[in-house]
Design goal:
It is a single chain. The chain is mainly α. The protein is built from 3 helices and no strands. The protein has helices spanning about 10-15, 20-45, 50-70. Helix 2 runs antiparallel to helix 3. The chain starts with 11 loop residues before the first helix and ends in a 9-residue tail after the last helix.
Length: about 80
């Protein structure tokens, strides 16, 4: 089976092996921030308006993604 562009599909195991753990960390941290701030916003809607929950979610996800990018080792990159 070929893709519309004429290229053959990439095997899932090959694609997963080529993905940096930093990408996985960024996705997981964004999901975690979204879940946490959604629960906090739902517990007491008067405490945080929707706009503040959105700002806090984005800021938390950005900080966690930065920390993951800094501390998570990427075995796909050559490191001295």
């Amino acid at each position: 089976m070929t893709q519309p562009s004429g290229e053959s599909p990439v095997d899932r195991e090959v694609a997963a092996a080529a993905m940096s753990p930093k990408v996985t960390w960024a996705a997981a941290s964004s999901a975690l921030a979204t879940i946490v701030w959604t629960i906090v916003g739902a517990v007491d809607p008067a405490l945080f308006p929707a706009s503040e929950v959105a700002v806090l979610t984005g800021a938390t996800a950005t900080i966690l993604a930065f920390l993951g990018g800094y501390f998570v080792r990427d075995p796909l990159r050559h490191q001295p």
